[in-house]
Amino acid sequence: MEKAFTIRGDGAKGNQIEIEFQNRIFPGTVGKNRTWEVTLSGLKANAVNEDMIIREGPRELTVKNLLVGELWVFSGQSNMAFPLKNATGGKQAMKEIPQAPIRILRFDAPPTTISPFNEEHLEQLKNIGLYRFSWKEPTAKSLASFSAIAWWAGKEIQARKGIPIGIICNAVGGTGTEAWLPARTLQKDAYRAIAGDRWLSSERISPWARGRAKLNIGKHDTTLHPFKPSWCYENLMSSLRDIPIAGVVWYQGETNAEQNAPAWNQQLICDLISGWRRDLNQAELPFYLVQLPRIGGTDPMRQFWPEYRASQAAAAKKMPCTKLAVTTDLGYDSPDVHPPDKRPVADRIVEVIFEER
Fold first, then answer.
1. Over pLDDT 90: what percentage of the chain?
2. Looking at residues 27-49, what average pLDDT do you find?
3. Any alpha helices (H) in the chain, and if so which ranges?
4. Are 71 and 166 spatial neighbours (Cβ–Cβ below 8 Å)?
5. Separation between Cα atoms, residue 144 and residue 155, nearest integer Å
6. Whole-angstrom Cα distance, residue 107 to residue 172?
């Protein structure tokens, strides 16, 4: 399906803008606020690298090596972010990269490991503009730290569809669903207890997440953190507004499953889906939820995983254009929260994406 998308920039008030792409000219004008936007519509999927030329008066910018196809977003927490180099069979996969029209993009956030934030991390939290993201072609180097699930699933999506695929991964380890809610969603009365700076003391937030966030923040006078409600959405997702997305694969829940709150967790998932669709202006944006797998051990943090799986299933059943990839059988008996065998999970996701509706 052909979908329009918008390109934005700034310039001198009143200047004419001209974008040349796919042998067409798309015009625009710099507004009073010195910004412009041009919508490109009717583009054809094309696996041949092309250049886009953007002109403003005598100035000209050429963006090279562009493909036209579908964008897929893979989001969630650490199991989605789990890198290919550490996955079972990942190193071999890095040696067998297909010559296919695929591009990858990885968004990052300050690390939420067991250590206090330094000044650089704090600056990043205050100003997401410090981040610089760029599309990369899949190579052994670029794939080493890229999501194993996103790569294996995205590669198969491309093979089946036969068009260029852009794979975006913006997963952040340890994040709860609430960190990915749009700020507008947090204005609902249901989220009053976790809005603003109240989240660090709210019992609605995973005790583990609050403890890790306080450790990261340390003695700094701030409540900014990737775990803060809406932070991840507003800083790592909202930039995709007005960009047509073919589908979202959401693998998250290990943090929220610490608490036995089925109704609350179901609401979080449903509000995330509806909030993203509203903010991204895609009312029927397909969502594919990845069920928490089997896990071993007796860690009390994992005792409510069955209840959380039920919340995931209920949300998938309730929300339109939403499917559940069942993975209970794909876990293992270790208490490690990160099963390394990610290929079967990616295969299960692809099966769900292409199954008959």
1. 83
2. 93
3. 78-81, 90-93, 119-126, 140-144, 148-161, 207-217, 231-236, 262-279, 305-318, 343-354
4. yes
5. 15
6. 9
Give residue 339's pLDDT. 94
Specify whether the backbone of 231 is left (phi greater than 0), alpha (psi in -120 to 50) or beta.
Answer: alpha
Calculate the CA 34 to chain-centre distance.
31
Rounded CA-CA distance 221/278 in Å is 34
180-220 confidence digits (pLDDT tens): 999 999 999 999 999 999 999 999 999 999 999 999 999 99
Q: Is the pLDDT of residue 130 over 50?
A: no
Number of helices and strands in the chain (H, E)? 10, 12
Positive or negative torsion for Cα 156, 173, 208, 289: negative
Token representation of residue 165: 């695929």
Q: DSSP string of 9-45?
A: EE-STT-EEEEEETTEEEEEE--TTSEEEEEE-SPPP
End-to-end alpha carbon distance in the chain: 18
CA nearest neighbour of 148 among 352, 14, 341, 350:
341
pLDDT at 152: 98
pLDDT of amino acid 132: 58
